[in-house]
Specification:
There is one protein chain. By secondary structure, the protein is mainly beta. Helices cover 8% and strands 18% of the residues. The strands form 2 sheets. The protein has a two-stranded antiparallel ribbon. Bound molecules: iron/sulfur cluster (2 copies). The site of one iron/sulfur cluster (SF4) has 14 residues, from loops. One iron/sulfur cluster binds next to helix 1.
Length: 65
């Protein structure tokens, strides 16, 4: 499972420096999470670091189908 960033993101750049896998990048319009790199911080933190720092709470877990 990965995480995704909602369109309410204000591109504040709080999350990207916190990611241990460099999975968050600005794509020219908005910050995005590369789901091939995101491990939900497994082995680094107990909870996703990006979610912890986002001031808007706009990083969501993808619903598992
Ligand atoms: S959950 Fe962790 S690994 Fe995934 S994007 Fe957020 S900070 Fe990076
Ligand atoms: S911390 Fe939240 S609002 Fe800021 S760039 Fe990341 S996702 Fe967007």
């Amino acid at each position: 499972m990965s995480l995704w960033i909602e369109s309410s993101c204000i591109n504040c750049d709080m999350c990207a420096p916190e990611c241990p896998n460099q999975a968050i990048a600005y794509d020219g319009k908005q910050y995005q999470i590369d789901d091939s790199l995101c491990t939900e911080c497994a082995g680094f933190y107990d909870r996703p670091a990006c979610v912890e720092v986002c001031p808007l709470d706009c990083i969501e877990a993808l619903p598992s189908v």
